[in-house]
Design a protein that fits this description.
Blueprint: E1 21-27, H1 31-46, E2 49-51, E3 60-65, H2 70-92, E4 98-103, H3 104-109, H4 111-116, E5 122-124, H5 132-138, E6 144-146, H6 163-169, E7 172-176, E8 178-179, H7 190-193, E9 198-199, H8 202-214, E10 219-223, E11 231-233, E12 239-241, H9 242-250, E13 257-261, H10 270-278, E14 285-287, H11 295-300, H12 307-320, E15 325-332, H13 339-352, E16 356-361, H14 379-402, E17 408-416, E18 422-426, E19 432-436, E20 445-453, E21 458-465
Parallel strand pairs: 1-2, 1-3, 3-4, 4-5, 5-6, 7-10, 10-13, 14-15, 15-16, 19-21
Antiparallel strand pairs: 8-9, 11-12, 17-18, 17-20, 18-19, 20-21
Helix pairs in contact: 9-10, 13-14
This protein binds S-adenosylmethionine and iron/sulfur cluster.
Iron/sulfur cluster binds at residues 181, 183-185, 188, 190-191, 225-226, 264.
Length: 467
């Protein structure tokens, strides 16, 4: 059993007795935050921290925050209130706690976080978290804020994940390849919280993925705020687009499946569409947010595409890869959205037929142009439109799942299921699939016949372990 001693400063070098420092990282929001949290865990591991099983046991607590909608931000302040009480309790028990707020709320609100919650020791934005070790040292003297956009990318400073950390990622891992956004949709905080678009080099991405593959990872999801705008430096110094990167990633030994998210409809290039036709490892699913089906609303949103452009892209992708499934994001109740605009959104959903989609009520974000736009939509109208859109999406999702019965898919098994003797994996379309299978099939892509549909998963029968 580990020995517990008073720990005033979690970064202090171990004295005579073995000090076991523990870190607890809680991530909110998008997949990019999940990836950032893993990289922060890698930094903490280098600094000698082990993962705490519960927040109560942690000497270092990191909240990796989201700012995309108002509710996401408010949830974090309420969480911080509880952590302040925990910090006080631990202090009374003679234990020190360092509280870090990272992520997009940290970037957007900076010192305001310290004003609203003085128990916070470090505020660090998403492009500065590689500086955590020095920030934690500085925080011994008082609270610190690091929310600048440093010129040099954080990635070069991040430590490589240790083998145990890779094992914790399981068989499927996220890898951020592109950060930031230059699009400035009028409702969105991302360009302000994540900064301008930057792409990692092909070499850096491939090195990271090769290490993950050597540690047992079989599926990679390439992440970016606008991942299809990726333009990283290739080995010969020339820029490579996402299609080239996907081809390079799928050639890494051990990598059986590649996905990417999230794409902007305006950056759907021909060579990326061709990759969907040619690259066997590229999953036949695409998350392509459209936000609205009304051209008037799309123009007001500064989306730089019309509904017809979106439908055309969907058709071009389907021509290249007929079995592809689309998912999307929608915002209802954008300022000035009329009933007719909303009907156009429903029409677009019917025209595409999505495998799944996320729908959000428009949330005014301070500092974005839409927040000050006239004709904000009342809460009841937003609620009503959201319910209608979600009902249609759910109908399409259920129809898509039902249509998989009798089909055979390659399922990548990830972990044991709830029942003894059962494994759970993912279909090429990201659906959870349960099947009776030995644990030796974890990390294996097996051919599975779908035999039934549950509300949130599919039941399958293993036909043969494929690869
Ligand atoms: N880059 C992606 C794109 O171009 O669509 C999306 C990134 S954003 C993190 C994820 C989703 O959050 C968006 O697609 C949008 O639907 C939603 N979102 C962003 N800002 C919002 C706001 N102010 N209110 C409601 N939903 C919002
Ligand atoms: Fe936000 Fe996506 Fe628009 Fe960029 S493209 S501003 S991330 S919604």
């Amino acid at each position: 059993m580990s020995e517990s001693i008073v720990l005033e400063d979690p970064l202090r070098a171990a004295p005579a007795r073995q000090v076991e420092k523990r870190v607890f990282i809680k991530s909110f929001g998008c997949q990019m935050n999940v990836y950032d949290a893993e990289r922060m865990a890698d930094i903490a591991a280098e600094e000698g921290f082990r993962e705490a099983r519960a927040v109560e046991d942690a000497d270092l607590i990191v909240l990796n925050t989201c700012h995309i909608r108002e509710r996401a931000s408010e949830k974090i302040y309420s969480e911080l209130g509880k952590l302040r009480e925990l910090k006080d309790e631990r202090r009374r028990a003679g234990q020190g706690t360092t509280l870090v707020v990272a992520g997009c709320l940290a970037q957007a609100e900076g010192v305001e976080i310290l004003r609203r919650q003085p128990a916070v020791d470090v505020v660090v934005g998403p492009q500065s978290f590689h500086r955590l070790p020095e920030l934690l040292r500085e925080a011994r003297l008082g609270p610190v804020v690091a929310a600048d956009f440093p010129a040099e990318g954080k990635f070069v400073h991040l430590p490589a994940a240790a083998p145990e950390a890779i094992a914790r990622r399981g068989v499927s891992a996220f890898v951020t390849v592109q950060e930031g956004c230059d699009k400035f949709c009028s409702f969105c905080v991302v360009p302000y919280t994540r900064g301008a678009e930057v792409s990692r080099s092909v070499g850096a991405v491939i090195d990271e993925i090769a290490r993950l593959a050597a540690g047992g990872v079989r599926e990679i999801t390439l992440l970016g705020q606008n991942v299809n705008a990726y333009h990283g430096q290739g080995e010969d110094g020339r820029a490579v687009g996402l299609a080239g990167l996907i081809r390079a990633v799928s050639a890494v030994p051990g990598i059986a499946r590649v996905r990417y998210a999230t794409s902007h409809p305006g950056d759907m290039s021909d060579d990326l569409i061709e990759a969907h036709r040619d690259v066997e490892a590229l999953a036949p699913s695409m998350h392509l947010p459209v936000q609205s089906g009304s051209d008037r609303v799309l123009r007001a949103m500064n989306r730089r595409h019309r509904a017809a452009d979106y439908l055309d892209t969907v058709a071009r992708v389907r021509a290249a890869r007929p079995d592809i499934a689309f998912s999307s994001d929608f915002i209802v109740g954008y300022p000035g959205e009329t009933d007719a605009d909303f009907e156009a959104t429903l029409e677009l959903v019917r025209a595409v037929g999505f495998a799944s989609a996320y729908a959000f009520k428009y949330s005014a974000r301070p500092g974005t142009p839409a927040a000050d736009a006239p004709r904000q939509i009342d809460a009841a109208t937003k609620e009503r439109r959201l319910a209608r859109l979600q009902a249609l999406i759910e109908e399409q999702l259920q129809a898509f799942n039902r249509a998989t019965v009798g089909r055979r898919f390659e399922v990548l098994f990830e972990k044991p299921g709830r029942r003894e003797g059962q494994l759970i994996g993912r279909s090429p379309y990201m659906q959870a699939v349960f099947a009776d299978a030995p644990t030796s099939l974890i990390g294996v892509m097996a051919e599975v016949e779908i035999v039934g549909v549950e509300p949130h998963s599919l039941r399958g029968r293993v036909v043969s372990p494929a690869s």
